[in-house]
Amino acid sequence: MSPKRRKSVAASSGGPKSSPAARSTRSKSKPDSDLAEHDDGPRSSSGRLTRSRAKVLKESAGVSSSKKKRRIEEESPATTTATATATTGVMHREGHGALASRPLPPIHPPTTPRVRKSSRIVRLEVDRLQKLTLRRDKKDDPSTAAALPTPSDKNMVLGMSRSIVRVSSPPSSEGKLISPRTGFVISWDRATKRAMIVTLSTYFKKKPHEPQPELQVHLPDKSIVQGRLIFMNRHYNLSILEITSDLPLQVPAFGSASKYGQKILALSRDENMSLVARRGAITWSDGSFMWRNHYMFVDCDVPEGGVGGPVVDSCGSSIAMVHRAGPGAVIISISIICTFFEMWKQFSCVARPVFDVDLRSVELAGVSLREELSVKHNINGGFMVKRIADDSALEHLGVRRGDVIFFEDECGTSLPEIEDYLLSLGWRYLQGMKSMVLKLLVHDIEGPCKETITLPLEFSVDSGKVARWRMA
């Protein structure tokens, strides 16, 4: 016997049947079909809402509500962070490291109330900020940057940093002061912290009551120490200072004598104690002035304050010193300076033969003059006499202006080499050789005369009495 079919709630109710109009309205809304399309839960065979289907719909609604609540809770921290970011203007980097977790500065920092400060505090703060800005934005001058284009060039110059100093002085009672110049270390004693500085000096006669000039030596770390003038020489215009330095200094590497055509770097320090470099070459020219035949020239413009600075070759070895700044600067070979210093250190003085004549190398003369000397007189070397001192020993022996002379001793073919030879004779003199002569072959280019003369040498010994002279 089959069980009776259960009637639906709507069928069991005794309500009146729906009218055609109501059925038409219900068919248009189609609530059961909508539920059938969007609900995956069980339903009655007729598509009508039953008790079991209502229970399922209620449970699914509760699950949906809990999921929505959980999603809102998960999104709330991000919303809070975004709100805080919008409020404070502080943003955080994404990442797990300590650096990435740091907050970025506010885009629009809050304004702080203005506090009135004293003018002294404001001035100190401005000075501090200016110094920080200068250190951060410090750059080489364009000429130095052009002279040191590669890292190897910069490293070579930095290797000489502890060798290059700046020398100056405060104004004297008469307002006179020593023009700032550069110097370099020529001797350093690590045990006593004493250094010898060689630099350039010019001279003027001081009054007997005037004290010895006060000298200041500016070191690479910008500290200033007192410099004691212990020796000066008028012929070479060189001075030796002694200082005591807590900063370890160093003696630069000294090369051989400078050569014509050699590539060089002229180094110095400016008023801010920054290293200054000028790149150039030694020109194929010579010059003499007041019986000083040892000058050489470079084709670069050395700035003011560069006198006394070292001139280095491509290997970083010092080969000369700047004697005069400006375009076509004048330099002195390092061989002369080293002999000068060693002679003073051993004998406390410098000796040199009296040789009062200005010379000019024939090899460096112009083509027209050289051709004339070669064709007419068969002269292809030697030195032309530009000027000779009145009433000198050479004048008494018959040497005249325009003559060409040859040194019979092997003393070199250039004027700096002749100066090295004369200094070597002064060394022999201080060692006890008092009688020496110089043999010269003299050509008279105005006539056929050619004669060898013997010049007895007299020596000038300079003990560098600083009590009689001062730097200017």
Automatic annotation (TrEMBL):
SUPFAM superfamilies: Trypsin-like serine proteases (SSF50494). Residues 9-24, 78-88 have a biased composition (Low complexity). Residues 1-117, 134-155 are annotated as: Disordered. InterPro entries: Peptidase_S1_PA. Residues 29-42 have a biased composition (Basic and acidic residues). Residues 103-112 have a biased composition (Pro residues). Pfam families: Trypsin_2. This is PDZ domain-containing protein. The gene is LOC127773615.
